[in-house]
Amino acid sequence: MVNYLKEHRFQYKQKCSDSKNFAIATSFLALIASSCSQQTAINVAANSDSSSKTLTTKTTEKNNVIRLGYQKGGIIPIARQRGELERRLVTQNIKVEWSGPFDRCATLLSSLNGNRADIGGCGDIPSISGIAAGQPLCIGSVQRPSPDSLSNAILVRGDSPIRNPADLVGKKVAVNQGGAGEYLLLKVLEKEKIPSYKVQRVYLSPNDAAPALYQGSVDAWAVWEPYISIAQLEHKARRITTTHPAPTYGIMIVRGDAAKENPVAVKAALTALSEDGEWLNQHTNAGSDFLVKQLKVSDAVAKQVTKNRGPESYVFPNGEDIANLQKTADWLLEQKIIPQRVDITTAVCPLETTTAR
């Protein structure tokens, strides 16, 4: 009996010991599981924080990039060659990228509209036309018109019998549709009291209009610099107009979303471009040298382009500039060149400044 009790007492102790061991093991596993769960949570939080920082960094990097689109012969490609604009903006943690060259404003505006550039230099007519067509663009800074500027002209071949605007009646004139060329032609006809329907407009880009004029497919060409000087000095073309009857503004046109999302960088780039223009106004010979490299033209052509274009002075638009541009926009609507009215006040970029410099 005593042996029986001892045996069962031993078995009972063994069972208790096994139960305690099981409990300890279970608790240990639970502790490990809890630790793993907490570590996983920490890792998830850390990864989430890391992803957030990466996203913020990428967003910041994106917002610190300004893409400048340019045509041949404008202030932007000269600023690109000079390099001072990039050096100035990098001190503000803004990186500059370049897009171009474009043969005309229409293709440059398409680049802005397609989010391939943020800022580009155009005339007021194509800029207003682009805004009227619903492109998400806004007016950043302006170059005020100069009544004595020779940067626009109606050209004919050197051997043409056409001597003045009245001789254009019944003739074909190449213009860029909804652009500076068409505007010039219509304003010249208006000044000379010639009904516009008596002159046939042929819509061509500058690259197509030049050979059309030289080969006789059109009788005249309404165009701007640097095409004027190239046509005159290299192809013996001749002006039949001198100054513009309604001088136009130059526009630094901006992609709307860039102005809204990154106004500080956009404003800094526009200010830097203005400073490049002022530098060129004091160094016209250097400006001509830049054009020789950029356009691959003779020194004589480059110097005439620089002289004809006059000062490169861009400022933020004030109330008078807005009123003048509004008159132009309303005239374009009256002539049915644009499909709808453009409110210039709301078309100015929201850069927290409309004060003229």
Descriptive account of the structure:
55% of the residues lie in helices and 15% in strands. The chain contains 14 helices and 11 strands. Strands 2-1-3-10-4-11 form a 6-stranded mixed sheet, with helices on both faces. The chain has a 5-stranded mixed sheet with strand order 7-6-8-5-9. Strand 6, helix 6 and strand 7 form a beta-alpha-beta unit. Helix 2 (75-82) packs across helix 11 and helix 3 packs antiparallel against helix 10 (263-282). The protein starts with a helix and ends in a 10-residue tail after the last helix. Residues 1-61 have low confidence and may be disordered.
Contiguous helical run count: 14
- Strand percent estimate: 15-25%
> What can be said about the biggest beta sheet?
6 strands, mixed
Helix-strand makeup class: alpha/beta
Strand/helix succession = HEHHEHEHEEEHEHEHEEHHHHEHH
Roughly how many Å apart are the termini?
A: 115 Å
- Work out the number of β strands: 11
Radius of gyration: 34 Å
Strands of the biggest beta sheet: in what spatial order?
2-1-3-10-4-11
The helix fraction, in percent, is 40-55%
- Compute the average pLDDT: 84
Poorly predicted runs of 5 or more residues: 1-61
* Gross morphology: globular
